[in-house]
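sorry for the late reply, my laptop died twice this morning and i had to redo everyting from scratch. anyway the thing you sent over, i finally got around to it. pasting the sequence first so we're on the same page, its 531 residues, then the predicted structure underneath. double check i copied it right bc i was rushing
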Amino acid sequence: MKTKIYILLLLPMLVLGTITRAQYSEANDSTQGKSYDQISAMLDSLTAQTFLNRADYIDAQKSLSFRDNAPYEFRSFSDSIYKRNLAKLQSPIALDYNDQVKQFIEFYAHKVPLMKRVMGLANLYFPMFEEILDKEGLPMEFKYLSIVESALNPIACSRCGATGLWQFMYTTGILYDLKTTSYIDERRDPYKATVAACQYFKDMYLIYKDWLLVIAAYNCGAGNVNRAIMRSGGSNNFWEISKYLPSETRAYVPAFIAVNYMMNYAADYNIIAEPPAFSYFQVDTVTVTKPLTFNQLSKALNVPMDELQYLNPIYKKGYIPSLDANYKLRLPYNKVGIYMANVDAIAKASYQETVSTYTQQQALKPNVKFDVVSKEVDKTYTVQHGESLPLIAGRFGVTVADLTKWNHLKGNTIYPGQKLSIVTKEVVKVEKDIVCKDSCSIALSRDSINPNDSAKFAKKDSINTTQTLAENKETAPPINYIYYTIQPGDTLWNIARRYQGLTVQKLKEINKLNDNFTLTPGTKLKVQIGG
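ok and here's the structure:
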């Protein structure tokens, strides 16, 4: 009963989350022939992967001369052979044969170089797919759906924004706990996205009890499939409702069947997998507990940046922001020991690199008055009609488990009008402070300092040196100083312009600075403000 209620609550978001791909394509495809465009684009996206185009990778392939010199001539088989070969696959998914399937078999058969790459990449991803599919009790043939979706390109992005190996839309990703931030996109995480895809298959099978309809719903959303069923008079046969589906989906299921055929009978077309740089068993996973940059990882482990990026597509900017979360890092198995032995040094170098980058960026903004910080904020949210915990959790970027914990809920049942406590993080601006010498702790905004009123932020008992000088030289008036703490992005010029009568040259003289002096954040400078 709970499962049925969950599916009913889930259905509106499933429809909204996945319908966009098909709606977009339907609005832009004027002919059935254009339905091939998206599938072909995914295959072609592999040609742009620098990881796959690296010289050492290509040279390794060329050393296997039998692969490059094997003659190729396109072969077309009779309908009876296609049909017989599909029947031999014995899948719980109905791998039917018809003219549409034949067209896609021959479509993939013509994409020889790219199909070789896809078959090679299968050695990296398919063992993981099969393990998860087996655990979830799903047909193993679903692994081939990822080829139709992304051609096994983990950073593939469709023209309507679907991303990753399994091409999740943003809203559907949120529904299945795939987080997206400025630094990470879990839709591009091979493991997490595969788990999410399997959960979607299971949810849809509870509704349709037919695997081809599940595949159709994965492409165009449950809403489109439901409407097609109604327009057909209630049929649950994909081929009978096909004409009522978006054109992309009409091509999507035949393409899936064709990929099943090609991956099992590629040898009939003399298509042999190109060896990948890594297979599944040559890669291991470690947990990251400190922020790291790919640049420092690459230097310390002697692993090219493109390898790190390809094995870890979840990280969008080459940075692992592991402050309050344990992220995963995939490495060549022979580099794991080196990583474990040097992780502290790598983390320290990554921190220094990050600070240096930040300082350089701030140098371009000499008049910045604020620091930007993130802090937790408690909010109260009123449940609206038709909302569920997964929907609310996705909206605020938290998990269902968090909502349950914060509100002491015993289950996932909520009702309209119910008040929920939600802890979210908000970005706020905080004024930067000037720190005076020793005991002077009056916090002042940089631009609020009155240089003619030194008494507010300079204590006479904290300037013994200048007082002694004044006592020894009666003719010289006492000189008062405050101490300014250098902030990231500061220059001598923008420090001097804040104080009346102070110049860069004067600043250098009173602090005995040479021309090679480097402004280091945290260092204190004397600032003469009175005599």
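Residues 336-363 form the longest helix (28 residues).
thats about all i looked at so far, will dig more tmrw
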